[in-house]
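Cast an eye over my tokenised protein here and flag anything odd:

===
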Amino acid sequence: MSDEKKNAKEKTKGVIKEFKEFISKGNVLDMAVGLIIGSAFTAIVTALVENIFTPLIGLIIGGINFAGIGITIGDANIQIGLFIQAIINFLLTAVCVFIVVKTINGFRRKKEEKPTPPKPSKEELLLTEIRDLLKEQAKK
């Protein structure tokens, strides 16, 4: 086998080994899990926006359907309403995500907050002082 072929095989093995190391690192696995959960979360938020918020807003604004608004210029039909609807969906989705993240952060803060221990009472302070004095006497 020629030296060029050996070098090419070694480079290929090196790249494969490097790729295996990259894939097996925790960051990549965490990212993959995040993407999967993000996809599932996207489906939940989309369902919330499309099936709950959008119909409620439709009731509030009198059933106006933006999707049908358009401008025809020559043979071109510009669907402005679909763009407006996409903006509304984006804003509603952003509000939903903000509320969920804010709620989760609130739970995290409560979990991280540790209650401060109560101040020792006068009796506890006195007993601590007596204990320390007895320790000093025992050393002598």
User: Anything to note?
Assistant: Residues 1-64 form one domain. Residues 26-60 form the longest helix (35 residues). Residues 82 and 123 are 74 Å apart (CA to CA). The longest strand covers residues 71-73.
